[in-house]
């Protein structure tokens, strides 16, 4: 059996974190959840992840700012990690805005959990 893929979920809503965890744990992904962009950077300093689900609107450091900081990391593997934006304000952004920030994809709230799973699988490939 192959090792579980590690997903870092950055989201300030406990409800969304719990639902996302349940969906991804069912598919045997290993999940770590944090509440803001600063915590994302702290977790990345401690461990490797295969993918980040990044809420755009978070306290302390938002998802765009955090993504730019990740893309600027000196570790090339960590700097290239796939990052999927999660946002309720997608109308405020274009896919071009997300791409310029370094995001690979986005999902809009309210989350469609089938789409969440297929998007995660698209970026992580088969387990």
Arithmetic mean of pLDDT = 92
Question: What's the story with the biggest beta sheet?
Answer: 5 strands, parallel
Strand content bin = 15-25%
Name of the CATH first level: Alpha Beta
Q: Which fold name is given in CATH as the topology?
A: Rossmann fold
Strand order of the largest sheet: 2-1-3-4-5
CATH architectural category: 3-Layer(aba) Sandwich
Strand element count: 5
First and last CA, distance: 9 Å
The total number of structural domains is: 1
**Class by alpha and beta content:** alpha/beta
Protein name: Response regulator with CheY-like receiver, AAA-type ATPase, and DNA-binding domains
InterPro entries: CheY-like_superfamily (IPR011006), Sig_transdc_resp-reg_receiver (IPR001789)
Domain Response regulatory: 6-124
Modified residues (4-aspartylphosphate): 55
């Amino acid at each position: 059996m192959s090792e579980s893929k590690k997903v870092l979920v950055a989201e300030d809503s406990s409800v969304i974190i719990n639902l996302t965890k349940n969906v991804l744990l069912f598919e045997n992904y290993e999940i770590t959840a944090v509440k803001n962009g600063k915590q994302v950077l702290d977790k990345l300093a401690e461990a490797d992840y295969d993918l980040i689900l990044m809420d755009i609107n978070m306290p302390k450091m938002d998802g765009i700012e955090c993504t730019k900081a990740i893309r600027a990391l000196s570790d090339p593997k960590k700097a290239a990690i796939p990052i999927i934006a999660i946002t309720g304000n997608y109308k405020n952004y274009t896919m071009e805005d997300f791409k310029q920030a370094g995001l690979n994809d986005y999902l809009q709230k309210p989350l469609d959990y089938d789409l969440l799973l297929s998007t995660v699988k698209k970026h992580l490939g088969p387990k």
